[in-house]
């Protein structure tokens, strides 16, 4: 597997402001958050849901847009029901994370809102969505920023909003993708930014999950894998028994210490936690399958937790 040396910075030296500015100057708007996320939310919002603005990302200091952030919440919120949290677009470039959350809202929200209190944040990083990017404009990864000293407004605003809701968060499903651009762009850029050496891993061909090392809940993960198998194929471990450099915990599942790493999946005390990893670059998976796989995860996860 070929390792790429990134074109910005000096190998072994972390980026300063000049390198971050150079990186930012190369980013371009490639699609519309308003057209692809906000407008659909407004158009197909179920009667059982309410659309809430939970914050504003003001990047005008970078000569970039101001983004309004939206969540969809059960209109009939009941204190005696558990909370199911769904997050998408923490990494804005991971398209089915956002579009899968929208598809769930449109097709399944009303069904599950009779059973649980639903809270869906479909696109936590709108600038990342528009520029098809992993970071925010400050070259910060929101999905390493869900902790006490967050450097990401995207993460801080999401955490503050979720904390406003009283009740037990039973399930948290964070919707992601693993793409070929992880090796061609994002991992080399991270190594350059941090002044470290990048070693690419094999991109798994297929869907997999990242559970939480501290609460793996193997049965929960297995139920989700079985549901997704009906929609798209599951990634096989590589010759070293790994996915993305991590030893397989069970078929289609690796575990990370989510809270310690500042991952979105670690921001609550939910018993049942998982992060999806869809592979949109597979010749065996269409965008429609990728979105459907994300929906299958949410449904299967909630069904298991309630059973």
Oligomer: single chain
Judging from the principal axes of the Cα atoms, what is the shape? globular
Number of strands: 10
> What is the top-level CATH class?
Alpha Beta
- Name the CATH superfamily assignment: Zn peptidases
- Rounded to the nearest angstrom, the distance between the terminal CA atoms is 43 Å
Instruction: Enumerate the spans where pLDDT stays under 50 for 5 or more consecutive residues.
Output: none
How many domains?
1
Radius of gyration: 19 Å
Q: Give me the side-by-side strand order of the main sheet.
A: 1-2-4-3-5-10-6-9
Report the sheet-strand fraction: 15-25%
**CATH topology (level 3) name:** Aminopeptidase
Q: What would CATH call the architecture?
A: 3-Layer(aba) Sandwich
The class by helix and strand makeup works out as alpha/beta
Mean pLDDT comes to 96
**Percent helix among the residues?**
25-40%
What does this molecule look like?
The protein is an alpha/beta fold and 307 residues long. The protein has one domain: Zn peptidases (Aminopeptidase, 3-Layer(aba) Sandwich), CATH 3.40.630.10. 34% of the residues lie in helices and 18% in strands. The protein contains ten helices and ten strands. It has helices at 17-25, 33-44, 95-107, 109-112, 126-131, 153-163, 181-194, 218-228, 258-261, 287-306, and strands at 49-58, 66-74, 83-88, 117-121, 169-175, 208-212, 242-243, 246-247, 253-256, 272-277. The strands form two sheets. Strands 1-2-4-3-5-10-6-9 form an eight-stranded mixed sheet, with helices on both faces. A two-stranded antiparallel sheet has the order 7-8. A hairpin with a 2-residue loop joins strand 7 (242-243) and strand 8 (246-247). Helix 2 runs parallel beside helix 3, helix 3 crosses helix 10 (287-306) and helix 8 packs antiparallel against helix 10 (287-306). The longest helix is centred in the last third of the chain and has 20 residues, at 287-306. It is globular and about 55 Å long. The model has no long low-confidence stretch (mean pLDDT 96).
């Amino acid at each position: 597997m070929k390792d790429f040396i990134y074109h910005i910075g000096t190998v072994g030296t972390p980026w300063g402001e000049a390198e971050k500015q150079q990186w930012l100057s190369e980013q371009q708007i490639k699609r519309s958050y308003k057209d692809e996320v906000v407008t659909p939310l407004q158009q197909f919002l179920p009667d059982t849901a309410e659309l809430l603005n939970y914050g504003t990302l003001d990047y005008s200091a970078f000569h970039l847009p101001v983004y309004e952030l939206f969540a969809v919440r059960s209109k009939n919120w009941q204190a005696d029901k558990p909370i199911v949290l769904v997050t998408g677009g923490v990494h804005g470039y991971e398209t089915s994370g956002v579009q899968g959350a929208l598809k769930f809202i449109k097709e399944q929200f009303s069904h599950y809102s009779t059973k649980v209190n639903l809270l869906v944040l479909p696109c936590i990083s709108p600038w990342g969505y528009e520029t098809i990017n992993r970071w925010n404009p400050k070259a910060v990864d929101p999905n390493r920023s869900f902790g006490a000293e967050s450097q990401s407004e995207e993460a801080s605003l999401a955490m503050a909003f979720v904390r406003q809701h009283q009740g037990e968060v039973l399930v948290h499903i964070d919707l992601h993708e693993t793409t070929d651009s992880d090796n061609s762009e994002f991992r080399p850029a991270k190594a350059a930014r941090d002044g470290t050496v990048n070693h690419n891993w094999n991109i798994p061909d297929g869907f997999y999950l990242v559970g939480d090392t501290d609460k793996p809940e193997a049965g929960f993960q297995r139920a989700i894998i079985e549901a997704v198998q009906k929609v798209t194929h599951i990634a096989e471990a590589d010759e070293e028994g790994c996915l993305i450099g991590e030893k397989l915990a069970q078929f289609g599942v690796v575990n990370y210490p989510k809270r310690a790493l500042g991952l979105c999946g670690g921001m609550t005390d939910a018993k049942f936690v998982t992060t999806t990893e869809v592979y949109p670059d597979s010749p065996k998976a269409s965008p429609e399958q990728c979105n459907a796989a994300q929906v299958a995860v949410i449904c299967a996860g909630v069904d298991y937790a309630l059973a």
